[in-house]
From TrEMBL, chains A, B:
GO terms for molecular function: hydrolase activity. Gene3D superfamilies: 4-hydroxybutyrate coenzyme like domains, Acetyl-CoA hydrolase/transferase C-terminal domain, Glutaconate Coenzyme A-transferase. InterPro entries: AcetylCoA_hyd_C, AcetylCoA_hyd_C_sf, ActCoA_hydro, ActCoA_hydro_N, NagB/RpiA_transferase-like, Succinate_CoA_transferase. Pfam families: AcetylCoA_hyd_C (PF13336), AcetylCoA_hydro (PF02550). This is Acetyl-CoA hydrolase/transferase family protein. Belongs to the acetyl-CoA hydrolase/transferase family. Residues 333-471 form the Acetyl-CoA hydrolase/transferase C-terminal domain. Keywords: Hydrolase. Residues 17-224 form the Acetyl-CoA hydrolase/transferase N-terminal domain.
Length: 504, 504
């Protein structure tokens, strides 16, 4: 790249430009590395691969080389996949969704901590996770006065830049310079006892700065790249997703009619995936206008809602789009920049802000039990899928917390409503509404037994209803306590049958 | 009581004074009643009993009479005991600790919802729990201009007074008029989307008013009483409690030395009970000065710390003292009024404020599993003990969240560290430190497997360590996933043995 084309506009920093291999060589065995990246957006494209090659080399020479990898959330094969493939990760946090990574973790070859996303930055500030040695952060450009223009995600980048000893930047010229102005980096956070209220009262409030501050002395390397983000493709919503979306839309209309929701609703948070996208597609045709979103990731469905004018404003920490949606986004960046703000994840997921705004939270789950406890992370109680992510930040502090899943998995052989979940991520206290394609269970104001009856009747698949009713009825007789009746000797029999390959 | 002695100073309200029986007669079958009371402080003393008599009468005539009882938290035999004894409660929320109540719930004769205490008020404002018909609230007095002087707890009283159709007041002349000025009733709350930051940045900040506002037209009855609160007696800390306290104090000193806590710590939250009291007693002799507390209930231990000058300020929602401590408190009320504020529980337990202040949270538990998931509420997974109370508000949002218990229960036959808890109130994500008399497990930055090794070695009782190690080692081999290894066919075998009367 010639100097004229380069986006490293700060003269004093130009001498730190080098290759990815040279930059990766500055990382030491055992370092904890804070990398950018959130749901496949804004992750470093070149250094993780270079580091993986270095690790592979060292390992093949018998020199055990591992690092700690901290990110915003999930990344992409070039990062998690590359490093996990060479067994280069000692400890991974706070969220991942990579197949190779997952396989390593579940094989017991890699340590992983999934953490509430709103806890990560502050745990690092507090010194609870150990020392952060290096930051590896993708940016869109470096301004003449040395400030950093963020790329398609913010995640924990502010924290990595502030806390790491050394900083390595990837300046990605495939990211659009017109992103400048779409970010809001809040520099008002403090450690207790010096904390002040976060002055944010609506999703569109600007409380920070459009660029990252950085101490130039800490920048040890700059790598110039030109590579796109991982682009998630969405399938058209399937029948189950459409039915789940339908139940949610009916329910929201009912709540407006009852006066429990304003007619333009409240800010929406939506998990990732096909069901979430179907709900957003449903809103497209629904009666609600002037909607807002306060969420983690802006995906295709929300972009479409902004385009159509249904969604007036969206706050997130990442933009993660399909190839087509990305084209639309870039061609109309000036339009979207007026309607989207990206924030650090300690703000996008902040309990204070979520509670204040009164979010309608909609998240996916693996399974729920008859009392409404939700498992979002551990298949059969021991195998990690992705991680809790921000679902707990939203569920606990939402105005309304909904969890959704098809009523069965694995071709109908597994029920997603079970007697007892073998891993709890969200307790019954944080689950107001459960939705499957079968129906919606409104659990507000219900005791555990009333919840059980509602969940079984509304949400379970007809194939599994009789067995659930049977378990519950027998628990009503045989349980030592009748507050939350359970038969501990068979509470996991469904999972044990499934593990034995016999379905539930 | 003569008019000269009466504390109903507002002339327009004097004609509403009547007997408890007359007042109870204004309550209808099926009403939802919001009663005052938090941890045995400030509950109505006369009307619950009168209501219980009325219900008993109706029931004995074959007329099924039940009501819904909503409170701040636990009350006393005169309220929960009296109403539960006559089977008068259809639905109880959000927290109780009464033996008769508990027995009814666990026998399946009474519905109960335990709710995060910070959720209760807003769920009522939002209309999520149904209609509130009557408020029955104890106050210390009624001022000439018709404002209400709160008594020894605030709890949800502001919400009950605001939301109920009818208000019945108990004016208790056994409460000290000098309490006036110790309360801070915040009237700035709103429903979303109109919420603003709560302007509280230190435990001693005053953000509200010393008395309750009330619409006089809603007051249908005033009953004059003269009766003390339930007075909890504390036994001197036993050996286990002292050892738990010792581990916590060592840990706090270590954290100060490492720079992870300021030398005057951060605001303390402490659950109720003997262990909590032992920790506070330990602070009395410890090196920390100028402490503060931001907690739910102020008990003997904290009063002592204030008296000795170690604790500069305490914010709570209730004062619940033993007879001796109450004497000390009343004799020096002017002194304590400068150092104590009582707030509505939506503020004492507010996630926004707890997170901002950076609380050190210390709560009791029934049991924890080897991965750090905590059961605070359900003995053997199905029998309710008390309820989650505010423990989740504090644990999730604390700077440091600790849970403590003796390592065994029931004469050493039951281990409080188990392979898997049969009910989860606090997930591993919200538990940074576990403490038993055996030791303290610092779980920060540890993956599930590392947590298991630490918890077993540090916290389990020697009688149960070998069996826990054995379970964990076999899970490391036989678990389908190695992220959080478990053997689902024996995860509850410990509880099943205990249920069979064979101990764990
Ligand atoms: C729970 C979660 C994994 C569901 O994701 P999704 O894409 O809607 O789910 P899918 O239906 O595609 O299921 C994912 C996989 O789990 C499997 N699965 C789903 N339910 C299952 C169950 N009850 N038992 C066993 N496996 C199950 C599916 O078969 C699928 O497996 P496959 O990839 O081998 O086909 C996802 O929402 C998640 O990671 N949540 C936690 C974090 C979060 O909520 N983040 C967003 C907001 S902050
Ligand atoms: C969990 C909790 C019940 C512990 O209370 P405590 O007074 O410290 O506990 P104790 O050791 O006295 O135990 C209470 C009872 O549970 C029993 N128990 C304790 N651990 C047990 C276990 N692992 N298995 C079975 N029973 C157990 C005890 O034997 C005792 O029973 P008993 O009354 O029949 O003797 C209490 O802290 C609580 O209710 N917590 C939830 C709410 C909360 O945290 N509120 C405060 C802050 S907001």
């Amino acid at each position: 790249m010639t100097q004229a084309e380069s986006r490293v506009l700060c003269p004093a920093l130009r001498n730190r430009i080098m290759s990815a291999d040279e930059a990766a060589a500055l990382i030491r065995k055992g370092d904890n590395i804070g990398m950018s990246g959130f749901t496949g957006a804004g992750y470093p494209k070149a250094i993780p691969g270079a580091l993986a090659r270095r690790i592979h080399q060292a390992n093949s020479e018998g020199d055990r080389f591992k690092v700690g990898i901290w990110t915003g959330a999930s990344t992409a094969p070039e990062l998690d996949g590359a490093l996990a493939s060479v067994a280069g990760v000692e400890m991974r946090l706070p969220y991942q969704s990579d197949p190779v990574c997952r396989q390593r973790i579940n094989a017991g070859e890699m340590e992983y901590i999934d953490i509430h996303l709103s806890h990560v930055a502050q745990f690092v500030w507090f010194g609870f996770l150990g020392h952060l040695d290096v930051a590896v952060v993708e940016v869109t450009g470096i301004t003449e006065d040395g400030r950093l223009i963020p790329s398609t995600s913010i995640g924990n980048n502010k924290t990595w830049l502030d806390e790491a000893d050394k900083i390595i930047l990837e300046v990605n010229s495939a990211q659009d310079m017109n992103l400048l102005g779409m970010h809001d980096i809040y520099y008002g956070t403090q450690r207790p006892p010096h904390r002040k209220p976060i002055p944010l009262v609506a999703p569109g409030d600007r409380i920070g700065e459009p660029t990252f501050r950085v101490n130039p002395d800490k920048i040890v390397a700059i790598v110039e790249t030109h590579a796109g983000d991982r682009n998630t493709q969405f399938s058209a919503p399937d029948e189950n997703s459409r039915r789940i979306a339908g139940h949610i839309l009916d329910f929201l209309q009912h709540e407006v009619k009852k006066g429990r929701l304003p007619k333009d609703l409240l800010p929406l948070q939506s998990g990732v995936g096909n069901i979430a996208n179907a709900v957003l597609a449903g809103l497209e045709d629904g009666p609600f206008e002037n909607l807002t979103a306060y969420t983690e990731v802006l995906q295709d469905g929300m972009l479409q809602l902004i385009k159509s004018g249904k969604l007036a404003f969206a706050s997130a920490t990442a933009v993660s789009l399909s190839t087509d949606a990305l084209k639309e986004f870039r061609e109309n960046l000036a339009f979207y920049r007026e309607r989207i703000l990206l924030r650090p994840q300690e703000i996008s997921n902040h309990p204070e802000v979520i509670r204040r705004l009164g979010i309608i939270a909609m998240n996916g789950m693996i399974e729920a039990d008859i009392y409404g406890n939700v498992n979002s992370t551990h298949v059969m109680g021991s195998q990690i899928m992705n991680g809790i992510g921000g679902s707990g930040d939203f569920a606990r502090n939402a105005y309304l917390s909904m969890f959704m899943t098809p009523s069965t998995a694995k071709g109908g052989t597994i029920s997603c409503i079970v007697p007892m979940v073998p891993h709890v991520d969200h307790t019954e206290h944080d689950v107001q509404v459960l939705v499957t394609e079968q129906g919606l269970a409104d659990l507000r104001g219900l005791s555990p037994k009333q919840r059980a009856e509602t969940i079984i009747e509304r949400c379970a698949h007809p194939d599994f209803k009789p067995a659930l009713r049977d378990y519950y009825r027998r628990a009503l007789k045989g349980s030592p306590g009748q507050h939350t009746p359970h038969l501990l000797d068979e509470a996991f029999s469904w999972h044990l049958r499934a593990l034995a390959g016999r379905g539930m």
